[in-house]
Amino acid sequence: MKSFEYADEEIGNSEIGYVIPSVVIGAGILSLPRVLAEGTVSADGWLPIFAGGGIAVLFTWVVAKLASRFPKQSFLEYSSVLVSKPLAFVLTACIALYFMVFASYEIRFVATLSQQYLFASTPKEVLSFVFLLVVTYAVAGSRVALFRLHQLFLPIIIGILCIVLLMTLPLIEVNHILPLFKTDWKGYLQGTKSTLLSFMGWGVLLFYTGLMNKPKKAVKAGMIGMCVPIILYVLLYLAAIGVMSNVVTANLTYPTNELAKVVEVPGGFFERMEIIFFTIWVMALFTTSIVFFDISVMAINSIFKKVKKIKLVLILAPVIYLMGMLPQNRLQLAKVSEGLGYAGICVSIIIPALLIILAKFRGIRGDG
Amino acid sequence: MYFKSSKRNKKKEQDYSKREDFSIELSTSLEENIINIKKMLDQPGDLLTRPFVIGETGPACAIIYIDGLTDTKVINESIMKNIQSGADEIGKGFEEAETALLDRLSYHVISSASVKKVTTLDDASLAILSGETALFVDGTDELLIIDTKGWEDRSIEQPVSEGTIRGPRDAFTENIRTNTMLIRRRIRDANLRFKSHQIGRRSKNNLTVAFVDGIVHPELIKEVNRRLETIDLDDAPESGYIEEWIEDSFLSPFPQMHNTERPDKVATALTEGKVAILLDGTPFVLIAPATFGAMMHSPEDYYERWMIGSLLRTLRYFAAFLAVFLPALYIALVSYHPGLIPSKLAFSIAATREGLPFPAVIEAFLMEITMELLREAGIRLPKPIGQTIGIVGGLVIGEAAVSAGIVSPVMVIIVAVTAIASFSLPSYSFAISIRMLRFGFMIAAAFLGLYGIILAYILINIHIVNLKSFGIPYTTPFAPGFKSDWKDLVLRFPIPMMTKRPKFMQTEDDTRIDKEGKS
Amino acid sequence: MGKRISYIILASLSLLFLTGCWDQVQIEQRGFVLGAAIDLADAPSNGDPSFALTYQIVAPGGLGGGKAQGQSGQQKPFFNVTARGSTMFDITRNMASETSRTPYLGHNQLVIISSEVAKIPHAFTNILDIFLRDHEMRRTVKVLIAADQAKGVLQFKSPTAKLPVAHIVSIAENARKNIAIAPPLQIGEVHEYLLIGRSVAIPLITMSSQGKKKPQINRMAVYHGPSERMVDILSNEETKGLNLIKGEVQGGAITVEIKGESVVYEIRRAKSSIVPKIKGKDDIKFNVKIETEGKIAESFANIDYRDPANVSKVEKKVEKELERLATVTLEKLHEDLQVDVFDFARYVKKADYQLWMSIKEDWDSGKNYFSQSTISIQTDTVVRSEGAVIDTEE
After folding, report:
1. In terms of domains, do C209 and C315 share one?
2. Could you tell me whether strands C200-207 and C142-146 are parallel, antiparallel, or unpaired per DSSP bridges?
3. C22 and chain A: CB distance < 8 Å anywhere?
């Protein structure tokens, strides 16, 4: 039945608009206020968020522009036009690997967090495993359905974050936010870098734009989508600093979670906000993981065209799981996250920038 | 392609008919025909034959019908009386051609509204078994089938499973003609179409697809008919058989079609570009496609003021949430995360649980299963006793279990709230799906606490975003998002504001209301 | 498509469920800690101080929230468990051997530290560390210092509340009624002060000695940030002054004498504004302006309040009194102890960040720039209403 086109393997621009914030809001949101507070004075961290966010929006534009030059083409297809076939294969493989590692990091991160806040003695292997099963089930389904998942979950995530933010309002002390602009440029630079790393995620447009029915619209949708997490992060950061002050924020492992713990509506059933807060971060990590997993499947599938998607999913799932179990403790996990950040710069900034420059100079367009 | 039961389709190819082939032409001999019919039906006691002769010298004739399925008055008045009172007139000139006699009978004599000619024994027997009367004339290889259907029927009553305070009180009956009548009385549009199918290898049941041409998406009709044509069942006593056969995924816990006994609901659905499937013999009409959002709608939302309609819908979403999550949350919070309960509540739960023999999981399962038992027993028993069972079970068992120290009072409250919440959902089929899911969530909560509940919730979500009903994603219009359709989703906007038909149905004519009104 | 994989997932899920559940503890088997008290243990072994930690654990059956059965009435709704050790970790381990229910800190509302302990350098910080680190604990737990034994505070019999901790928590929240009660200090805020090494005043809980023993919170302990210990206890008047200067008064009464008879002025709204004037390290001035609004709550003196002159007479008197309280406090904290619990430091930081960065190590320790600063007090009082009656006697 071809009639209901919206139900088939094509996505519109609003779906892309949902995917971007869905991917970006993940592990980073929990620790970002701390990382920013470490490098900046009082509430100055909002500037680096905007700066990092600005760069993120810029590169979202670059990536979307690049990908929308080649409508309905996979990354492998258009990159082989641009940089010769063998190189394109290597690039695709590297990107697939990057997204796989990212997925395994997210899957491991879920276990670490749940261990810290909910389960003291349940082994991380089990927590990750169950999560991976759910992620695998999602990725094994139709790709368009994944976009629908984002559309269902993102409003919940943003809604609950906004509720938490609203409830922190009466607790904010202006004293914690002042004085303004006392950070030195090094602090700002440091903050911009860490923000940028936690905004990594627009790279998915390299792949997903090819699925769109009107790829030209990817540019605008992607940029709007990118703005959502920026605004959310700024508000969350200001709330964390305003409620808990800079020093405390800098000394909490996951300040965003602690923020939810500070909020108490006395008497009501929502005396403990963490319960819903916990829900949304599992969802947030889930939406991030499925995208990364799906993209690695997509990338590898474009290399090995004959292998069925389902088979690939079943092969990749254990690999991702084992990779996720490799880091022994939180420090190693942090190392992985750092490495991912730098790899992300490669994948989401350098490669697209080079490709688009090539495309511009050689005047190659995929849409004729 | 969307139809998953491909295995069943293959079976259709094989020849299933082992019995003697009766699809033979009729013979010209009246005698032989009657013997054949009787042989075919094995001389049942309710098969009546009434031989007669037209006029003095006319040909030998006979009518055959099944007693009980036919209206004897109609046979008397419109067949026998007419033929015999004008027998001489009719018999004239019959020597010329027997077929001419049949035509004359059909056009001039028999005053029944529906008369048709058939030529095979098979058709004849089917007609007779459907309550029609066969008129044999010696010397012709054709016979007349006269509609004399008439049997005892349940009259139109109030809907049993979908009551409303305000709104029409009529419900569908077992008679498909009554049902089509009920729909026609609501939509007097020339474009209202009823397309018939015959379902059931043995039962040969009537099935009608109703839709409004010019509104409905043509591909939808094609797909519905395609699926219906693949049906190969012995018997379809209820529309549930049809539903299970043509739905997209029979593994899903969610109903992918609505069933309703309310004609007003069907009429509204038809004007929204949906399709109704009526089956003879059941008052439950299927509406396809179904979406999650529509499962939460009750016709009364539109009949009462829009604010109340909106509030009630919101309440229903909340009820669905409670019905699914409440016991699971109780298990998770009580046995894993007491820190997430407000302090005072935590202490009083702990107080009530002091000295109980079972962990919260067992306690919850015990009570939930008891609840399901009570519900089941209440349905099976005759109505007056059913109510008594409800009261006895609910009050006495609950009270006794608490004072015997088997379950905590909090658990009783939770079970009661859950049950009430699940009763408040307008679609019974959907409510039972939710009841079933509840147990899944309870298991998830028992093993992984809140984490388990969330993962189970995500799992269900993955399932429903992959689920389609006749090509329409189950989560439409939430995702894929059709913002203009959100006017009639969780909230119900005032009717003058809902000027368009649901966009996701991609109707051919999308305007429902002209904003200006009639000038 | 997804069918086979859903079978696989179902199979592996069921495998998983066979392995059991690690963290499941039924709610009635947990010992909900409501309050914690830390004292110095009697026998100091080998020089290291050793502590005694007391948990007040709820016995929910005694709360009477559940079934109203015969014996539950007599059961005490709580029990106190004490364990000793030199580190908090040791203590919690020792405690496990003493209680039938594992202590669970998720509902803890109160941490009381005895002044003896708080006076030992670093002890206060070390003790709070475990409470802050525990992920179950919330950052809104209230912190109090006990003048004598902290454990004793948890043992009195409250006439109204079933649990002593609940009683104490509601006193601590009575800031609306008394100038001497500051808004309760939460462990999250204390964490902030500890991290930046700032001094802080912590509400002090004492047991009244005469008559029936009951707790009172009307004074404050001074905790000196740089040396990480408690240094002194403020008197009731000094506490009032401190709250006035910090602008943390939410209500309360000031009694003044007019014509030899008492007039009670009830504060409805109070605020303080601190304006720093900084010309250099050694020339830091603070102008503190205390403004109050209120009404006349009680008047023994026979005065006609319809006469504006009389009202302003009361206002003048109240202003004097407020100034006196503030001065007493400053004498003690600014001149004697030289500890900045007013958080003047924050205003310096806000006004001149560069200067602050250079002097922050020596603010109220070392060179003590705080004690070299000058602080001036201004007060302003308004009587908004004279009450419902003009006079009650002729």
Report:
1. no
2. parallel
3. yes
